[in-house]
Amino acid sequence: IKNNYETNIAYYDDKLLKRTLEERRVISEFEGAIEKKEFKMFLQPQVNTHGKAYGAEALVRWQHPERGLLSPFFFIDILETTGLIYKLDMYMWECAAAKLSEWKKKGDTVHYISVNISTKDFYLIDVYEVITSIVKKYDIEPKMLKLEITETALMSDLKKNMEVIKSLRDYGFKIEIDDFGSGYSSLNMLKDISADVLKIDMAFLRATENEVKGQDILETIISLGGKLGMEVITEGVETDKQLIMLTEMGCHIFQGYYFSKPIPVEEFEQKYMNE
Ligand code: C2E
Ligand code: CA
Ligand code: CA
Ligand code: CA
EAL domain: from which residue to which, for each copy (predicted)? Predict the structure, then answer.
């Protein structure tokens, strides 16, 4: 027994060590990677039933020289806990604004880009100041840059965040509530915040598989969003069955692998912008 116990400890120690080394590596390589532009903006289209794109969500990928293309899973959490996330987010907001400005010059003022704002950003930087400066610098309309904020950032006790978001909305930005329904204060929050788009968490769609209750909840959220004057987007659509169900429930904007995974910008432009 004693031996077994020791082996187990060794095993957990080993895992922990690996995790720590992994974290250290991300932290030590991060600044250099930003400078060398190893972070890439991928775009995932937000489409109507027929697959026509209204716009896209910007999702980061790390083109690592040794490890290949890394998904956010490998680094976002680490950047959030260490407080480095704001540097990545500012970089991504700027990538999106630069792209929008390029599109605008080509005559496209139809497509928007939604960017992610981490809850942590609100504590680390002056989000209002940074984002308004970026749209001025690139001379784009604020409504083309949509701001995705998860509901944890919007919880009603966070008065200060609410005020920042309200100022951004007054300035002309569209606010999207991301991962709606995944937190515990969702409904309460809706009462206090004014937002433009409700993005339903993927978990709700998963919960409808052969489940009447799950379907009822999803349908109710969609109509609630509508009643509150918000656009409703469902994320994680993977099958035509889901698409049909959602359309019948009154949702008209979708994001999911059924239409497209997040893809490099050039590919998005080829596939979605010359229609
Ligand atoms: P999120 O903001 O909820 O983004 C949606 C995630 O769902 C993306 O994962 C997307 O690829 C994935 N997804 C979309 N459609 C489907 C589908 O049909 N099926 C499945 N299984 N998944 C789907 P991704 O790109 O790996 O990003 C994961 C998370 O990392 C994002 O979740 C977001 O929280 C974070 N993230 C990504 N880019 C950024 C960024 O630039 N800044 C910040 N702060 N967070 C980011
Ligand atoms: Ca998002
Ligand atoms: Ca989401
Ligand atoms: Ca999420």
Answer: 23-275
